[in-house]
Amino acid sequence: MLPSGWSGRKQSEEFTDESEEEDSEEEPKLKYERLSNGVTEILQKDAASCMTVHDKFLALGTHFGKVFLLDIQGNVTQKFEISSVKINQISLDESGEHVGICSEDGKVQVFGLYTREGFHENFDCPIKVVALHPQFTRSNYKQFVTGGNKLLLYERNWLNRWKMSVLHEGEGSITNIQWRANLIAWANNVGVKIYDIGTKQRITNVLRDNVSLRPDMYPCSLCWKNNSTLIVGWGTSIKICVVKERNATEMRDLPSRYVEIVSAFETEFFISGLAPLADQLVTLYFVKENSDEMDEEFRARPRLDIIQPLPETCEDISSDALTVRNFQENECRDYRLEHSEGESLFYIISPKDIVVAKERDQDDHIDWLLEKKKYEEALMAAEISFKNIKRHDVQKIGMAYINHLVEKGDYDSAARKCQKVLGKNMDLWENEVYRFKTIGQLKAISQYLPRGDLRLRPAIYEMILHEFLKTDYEGFATLIQEWPGELYNNMAIVQTVSDHLKRDPTNRTLLTTLAELYTYDQRYDRALEIYLRLRHKDVYQLIHKHNLFSSIEDKIVLLMDFDKEKAVDMLLDNEDKLSTDRVVEELADRPELLHVYLHKLFKRDHHKGQKYHERQIGLYAEYDRPNLLPFLRDSTHCPLEKALEICQQRNFVEETVFLLSRMGNCRRALQMIMEELEDVDKAIEFAKEQDDAELWEDLISYSIDKPPFITGLLNNIGTHVDPILLIHRIKEGMEIPNLRDSLVKILHDYNLQILLREGCKKILVADSLSLLQKMHRTQMRGVRVDEENICESCHAAILPSDMAKPFSVVVFHCRHMFHKECLPSSGSIPGVQFCNICSAKKRRPGHGILEIKQ
Q: CHCR repeats at which positions (predicted)?
């Protein structure tokens, strides 16, 4: 059998045997089909001996001396009776217009398929090969070579006659010739040689490796990969030869070209044919029956392998065993491998069968993936190459994948693939939904249903919602949140949920879902009622979004109980919809909540709730004493007497001290600090804030018999009161803690003050000098006087129209200008003049800086 993945236009019953590649997980590289139609009939009566491939047609030679021209489907288009014995070789030029044929009885014919011209010759020995010049159609390339016991070159001269010359002889029968551009390669019993027809030089001789093999039984295979690379296969050896230009300095008497063998390696089987495939090789192997590695049935099948040549070995890419007709009777010489360069087609020729191998396309790749149940990869391949595939449809592959997943029981994956595969086909979607319902897997497909511009009938969505409502309240709630309300009949679902709540009235999930349904149905009051009952976090969002402030006037306490911070922020942000007075009225019976509201209102604006400031004093005293003192400090509308009364009742000393000081009773305030708080630092701080000498005197008098207080005063009053006054009043013999440190600190502070004063004095003197110099430079500058300036007294032009006449002008530093005669007499200081304008404005007078006389 041909390997797995083989496909053809006509498959024979002989291709039904199993092959070991069937079970392989590796995808075949080639696909195969038997060349049928006219070929089948020919090979039933005759046997193929050779074939040549052109991009447009095929030329088949038989053992009975006939040559058939075939189309690529195998249909006979032309037939030639050449001989009565075996056709050894058929050669075509590149254009496909001329053919060369040789046979076992020594006949050689070269003729045009569309012209009468030709060459006919009978030799006295079998002619094994013939090769036309690739450009034979052109008049200056009318050349061909034949190979029997000699290699003969025929050329048509200018007299239109054929001239024959011997290129090589004496090394046995020539079995293969390949002509490419100017290079002719041929094989005889000794090895392979290359001849340059342009320079008329023989380039190289590649010797045969295994001389024990009969050349007629294991003929050499030659193939040109390009104009300079020749592939040689003989026995089990493959060599890749590259023709290169010789360096001019190395030539002497040597040919202008030489051959380098870039790769040489051994194969497992005997080579029957070679063909290039990009940078790889396609090799046709003959497998001998006496091989010990495989069972007897398989050994005789020819193998078509793809290998990657390396310098000294090769890497197997793929290997296919081919079951051709009568393969048990064939020898190595009975197989040939021909290829079409244009389409990468490979023809395996045997006496009774011709098989065509071609590279697998994307459709074949997808076929193989589907056969191996690799649906994910098949779908991906189809999506990537959707423009190139011909036999497959992306959606059908996707449906096959979904069916496969359902059969496996992987319902979630199957449902997820529906989204990708079904796309916008709503009919297919509905069919899949009902199929999932049949197998009890509606939940699996629910999250993948279309819900955008394209959507299914409402009944489909309602069916799924009812299914969830029966078994999974959480899943039902999730769908209600995720699905737009217009997908289904909202009222019908509301009724169904209400029916379920009758059986389970406290179910939070159902209540929350019902509130969402009411919201979508614009019955916000019903939704708000449920949210407040559940203390649901979305209640504030619902109020904001749908402007439900009129509905919460009597529910403010409920909102505050749920979340004070959010409720207060919402109420304050919407004072235009819920007035402060209304909120205070609602919270009157809940003073702790009222305090939270009024406190935040005060923090936002100290003046907005001023009429409630008196009420807030008691609220702060009761619920939030830490914020009472800041409130008293910041409020300008708080009644001080009321505040003082409350603070004294509750014995709030700090607040009482603040209120006393604010009411002007600083001495009483200081007394409370010293007597009740006994905090000298706070007393000193208070005295510093008031900056009153009498308070300092009271503080010193109170502290003079208390050593800790004296220490505090000594450490802190140095910058406000002369420490000497305190030190003189200390009783002799009194033990004062840390007295030495306090005195050192006083001296240090005094020294620091002296240093600061001296530093300031230096800076002041330097600045004064700098400013004086700047003023002097400024006053020494000249002042521009022109015809546009006027006298500030007479308002006439300061300069006379006739500059030749004598005139006198006075210009002050303040830039006021006067005629000499218009300037009033000098003042009390003789010789010093002042600007009348600046003196009148009670500014410092400007001094006359310039007197212009002419």
A: 568-712
